[in-house]
Amino acid sequence: MNLNTPVQNTWCPGCSNFLILSSAKKVVADLVKEGWARQRDFVTVTGIGCHAKLYDYINTGGFYGLHGRAIPVANGILLGNPKLKVMVFAGDGDAYAEGVSHWLHAARMNPNYALFVHNNQIFALTTGQVTPTSEKGFPGKSTPRGNPLRPMNPVAMALEAGASFVAREYAFDARNLAATMKQAVKHKGFAFVDIIQPCITFHDTRDYVSGRTYRIKPMKLEQALKKAREWDYSRSPKARIPVGIFYRERRPTLEEAFGAKDWHAVHPKRRLNASLWSKLRV
Ligand code: SF4
């Protein structure tokens, strides 16, 4: 199996995106080897940002989406073929700013795919503006006197919005990252993984994050919410950062909630008769 592509990689040398890419490849390779899916069943969907180049570097089917719109693209792919194994990659500016409504409604609706957010707490591709998870005081390009706003907490928000699988990982802990990504891909329903992904060029958080992380196991929702609030994405000197799977549950996916018959009925190929469909294709 060849998961590499001939595209030249343009990430900064040493960028933690490399670790997310290698973890994604490992997940696909493992699951193909285990017979869980075929390589051609995997679909990589991205938004726009440094993270999105991952689309170019992994040999699966895919769709390079618009900024903040990876999730509606994934919904469409799932609608067209619910058997595909969709992996959605987004950035923090991508998913938590422009795409915030898509992300929260995905958590509520529980479509059957995994969302991996490369959270570097900055707009990295555009060289350093604040995002919704940038810490207060961060002197980004758009806030040279320091970010006046406090960050949002995406893990707590995903739990509140109803995501059926919620995790946080640290990109530089590649072994655990790959293990959690694999569980997220195999999860039946919407799996959300916030990946702390230091941008070593414009927002290097390694000194702060390394040494503060500790591993957790899945827990009940109320406990998970409490655990999620232990770190508020600030640079508090006392903070510790829980990583791992906070919560998971099996509940009806979007497809199951609508009923498989109705789900397929909304597909235009099935709704329209063959001759009308052929006219619409011109
Ligand atoms: Fe990675 Fe930051 Fe470079 Fe983008 S700008 S490739 S996130 S180190």
Cofactors, ions, other ligands: iron/sulfur cluster
Could you say what the CATH architecture is?
3-Layer(aba) Sandwich
Number of DSSP E strands: 8
CATH fold-level label: Rossmann fold
Per CATH, the class reads Alpha Beta
- Give the strand content: 15-25%
Tell me about this structure.
The chain is α/β, with parallel strands linked by helices and 282 residues long. The protein has a single domain, classed as Rossmann fold (3-Layer(aba) Sandwich). Helix content is 37%, strand content 16%. It is built from 13 helices and 8 strands. α7 links the parallel β5 and β6. α5 packs across α6. The longest helix is centred in the N-terminal third of the chain and has 17 residues. It is globular. The structure holds iron/sulfur cluster (SF4). The site of iron/sulfur cluster has 11 residues, from loops.
Properties at a glance:
alpha/beta, Rossmann fold, globular, binds iron/sulfur cluster
